């Protein structure tokens, strides 16, 4: 059987240079126990150029999964090419006998081959399906049986406030993805809601500003608004940048958005809330919970 030791490395927003050593120390500490982990899985994140290379040279991973090259932290990386260059640094330090797993589209657009001698595995699936397929590939490479892989994927906990679903006021289905947002993740969530909402349910999106996008912010918010209208019946935007979405209703503040949705919510609605963490859209989520609403 397979036992998973959850280190909770990312809890509390520990900075990269702190959380990686903490996890390694915890892992070494576990070596004195009967259960010694054969594999260590670490998330290496970045919001400035050089963040990944600062630790990748010490990690020297055997298997690397490069997540989708999206329009995130553009205030620092300027372009998606800048994001790709930073993420591909992890591939550069991957063992030559190892494997690098990434999106087929990203591999083609940004030429991953020039960064690594490791075996490259390209995944065709996009959006939320990419993560599941990448996890499956990792399991296969580690020799984990297909039944164990299926079980692990089926029972994997969702990341904190990302696609958390509950029944809210008036029986509406609330999908809380309010922790953070960027254009690519927002589009993936909108497509997910469109696919998963019950037949006949009115689909509502409450989208907040996506921060740290630099000079590209206005165009990216406009584009997201156009995209959202293809998937939802009612679009509500929150924050100054989101005004560019040209939503059905624009709110300058969370309080304004909360008042509007509570006055217009209908039984059976499916409502998704997503925005950058700095927008604090969790306040809207809280107001939509049955136990927090006096009406």
Characterization of this structure:
- The chain has 295 residues and is an alpha/beta fold.
- The chain has helices spanning 16-30, 53-59, 74-77, 80-92, 104-110, 128-141, 146-154, 183-196, 217-228, 254-264, 282-287; strands at residues 63-66, 99-103, 119-123, 164-167, 173-177, 203-208, 234-238, 249-251, 270-274.
- It has a 6-stranded mixed sheet, sandwiched between helices. The protein has a 3-stranded parallel sheet with strand order 1-2-3, sandwiched between helices.
- Strand 4 and strand 5 (173-177) form a beta hairpin.
- The chain is globular.
The SSE string, one letter per element, is HHEHHEHEHHEEHEHEEHEH
Question: Measured on Cα atoms, how large is the radius of gyration?
Answer: 21 Å
Unreliable stretches: 5-18
Distance between the termini: 49 Å
Proportion of residues in extended strands: 5-15%
Total count of helical runs of at least 4 residues? 11
Overall 3D geometry? Answer: globular
Biggest β-sheet: count, sense, barrel? Answer: 6 strands, mixed
Strand arrangement, major sheet: 4-5-9-6-7-8
Q: How many strands in all? A: 9
Which percent bin holds the helix content? 25-40%
Class derived from helix and strand content:
alpha/beta
Summarize model confidence as the mean pLDDT.
86
């Amino acid at each position: 059987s397979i036992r998973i030791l959850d280190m909770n490395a990312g809890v509390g927003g520990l900075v990269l240079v702190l959380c990686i050593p903490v996890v390694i120390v915890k892992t070494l500490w576990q070596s004195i126990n009967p259960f010694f982990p054969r594999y260590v899985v670490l998330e290496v994140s970045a919001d400035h150029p050089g963040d990944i290379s600062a630790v990748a040279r010490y990690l020297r991973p055997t298997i690397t999964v490069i997540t989708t090259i999206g329009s995130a932290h553009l205030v620092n990386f300027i372009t998606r090419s800048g994001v790709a260059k930073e993420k591909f640094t992890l591939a550069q330090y991957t063992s030559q006998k190892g494997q690098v797993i990434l999106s087929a589209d990203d591999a083609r657009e940004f030429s991953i081959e020039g960064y690594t001698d490791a075996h490259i595995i390209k995944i065709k699936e996009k959006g939320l399906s990419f993560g599941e397929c990448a996890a499956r590939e990792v399991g296969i490479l580690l020799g984990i049986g297909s039944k164990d892989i299926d079980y692990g994927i089926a029972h994997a906990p969702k990341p904190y406030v990302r696609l958390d679903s509950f029944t809210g006021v008036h029986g509406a289905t609330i999908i809380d993805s309010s922790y953070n947002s960027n254009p690519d993740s927002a589009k993936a969530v909108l497509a997910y809601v469109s696919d998963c909402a019950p037949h006949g349910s009115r689909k509502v999106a409450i989208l907040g500003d996506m921060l740290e996008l630099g000079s590209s912010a206005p165009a990216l918010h406009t584009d997201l608004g156009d995209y959202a209208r293809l998937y939802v019946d009612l679009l509500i935007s929150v924050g100054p940048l989101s005004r560019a979405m040209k939503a059905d209703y624009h709110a300058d503040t969370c309080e304004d958005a909360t008042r509007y949705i509570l006055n217009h919510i209908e039984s059976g609605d499916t409502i998704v809330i997503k925005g950058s963490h700095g927008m604090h859209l969790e306040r809207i989520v809280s107001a939509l919970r049955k136990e927090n609403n006096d009406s």
